[in-house]
């Protein structure tokens, strides 16, 4: 009695241990999860945008740390009517410079330094975000690749079932309903394979998007869908020290410090700015006259201008203080929720590995022997085989959900949470 080729061990090895490394064409690039993350942290558009923003703020700091450009003017006086400008009896070349009160320059520069530091922390936060995106997209692609293998195997079984059912129907050993059912199952298996292939392609496109690779480029995945247990306790993740070290939280703290300095700068608007002018004057063709003048601004309209600036700075400061508190609460809630999901999914993965998968494999092995000994029919054997494939698929889905939760948890907490990272 012929049976379908055994595939249990092949599927098990593919699902749990063997990297999905195909033969790469010269134009293809092979990426492990580690190398994909390294590439993305260097070339991802989000990273480059954040780095450019730091450069922009550093340029603004240079502008704010020194005086504004001086002014240069020419004055011509006592020009006779109907004569040209060159006939002026008096002329003056004036060089002027506005000089803010010294503390204003210091405060303005210090505020801009805080904004640069906030942008650096934001870059670190975006690095965590990009790494998480790549991990999720990469593991999703591995899931759909394995799912495609399972769907292909299922289609082979369904087509074999359809062929055998037709033969049995033609010789009068099977009903038309059985033959019809076999055709429906085969059509469904073919559609499911097309869906998994599309999902796999889409997942690879998402990897390229997160890494900053053109969609026209082809990549090959060089890793496998793996299970690495959590190494960290939920209480440790929720400590204030852990949250306050997170780049996102530190970025908001730097913005808060910058807002404090902006308030101080607004208060310093009551201080006068100096105006310095020096000039060279020509009178009756004698150009040996020089002069200098001083002036200062004073807050005559303080009830509107200066008070308005201080009110604006106070509002921004209070807004950021509330934002810091809200960010802390959001991070605590997010970490708590994701950790709960990760621990639940880890438990499910362990149950699958220790109980469900071995039992499913044993059940299929018994079905093989029973079919060989004529104890069950071909339909019962195929149902057992399909049941085992579905169990493998559910395990892979649970493993994917766990890896996604781990990636989100590392982004939310800002620290590694697995026993080891490769």
Structure in words:
The protein has helices at residues 8-16, 33-43, 45-64, 102-170, 176-211, 234-237, 240-244, 247-267, 305-372, 378-413, and strands at 28-31, 71-77, 90-99, 218-221, 274-283, 286-296. Mean pLDDT is 86; it is low at 1-26. Strand 5 and strand 6 (286-296) form a beta hairpin. Helix content is 66%, strand content 11%. A four-stranded antiparallel sheet has the order 2-3-5-6, with no helix packed on it. The radius of gyration is 36 Å and the shape is elongated. By secondary structure, it is α+β, with helices and mostly antiparallel strands. It contains ten helices and six strands. Helix 4 (102-170) runs antiparallel to helix 5 (176-211), helix 4 runs antiparallel to helix 10 and helix 9 runs antiparallel to helix 10 (378-413).
Write the layout of secondary structure elements.
Elements: H1 8-16, E1 28-31, H2 33-43, H3 45-64, E2 71-77, E3 90-99, H4 102-170, H5 176-211, E4 218-221, H6 234-237, H7 240-244, H8 247-267, E5 274-283, E6 286-296, H9 305-372, H10 378-413
Parallel strand pairs: 1-4
Antiparallel strand pairs: 2-3, 3-5, 5-6
List the keywords:
422 residues, alpha+beta, four-stranded antiparallel β-sheet, two-stranded parallel ribbon, 6 strands, 66% helix, 11% strand, elongated, disordered N terminus
Structure annotation, total helices: 10
What portion of the residues fall into strands of 2 or more residues? 5-15%
Give the helix/strand class: alpha+beta
The coarse silhouette is elongated
* Share of residues in helices: 55-70%
Helix/strand order: HEHHEEHHEHHHEEHH
If strands are numbered along the chain, what order do they take across the biggest sheet? 2-3-5-6
Distance between the termini: 48 Å
Low-confidence stretches: 1-26
* Mean pLDDT score: 86
Count of extended strands = 6
The largest β sheet comes out as: 4 strands, antiparallel
Rg over alpha carbons: 36 Å
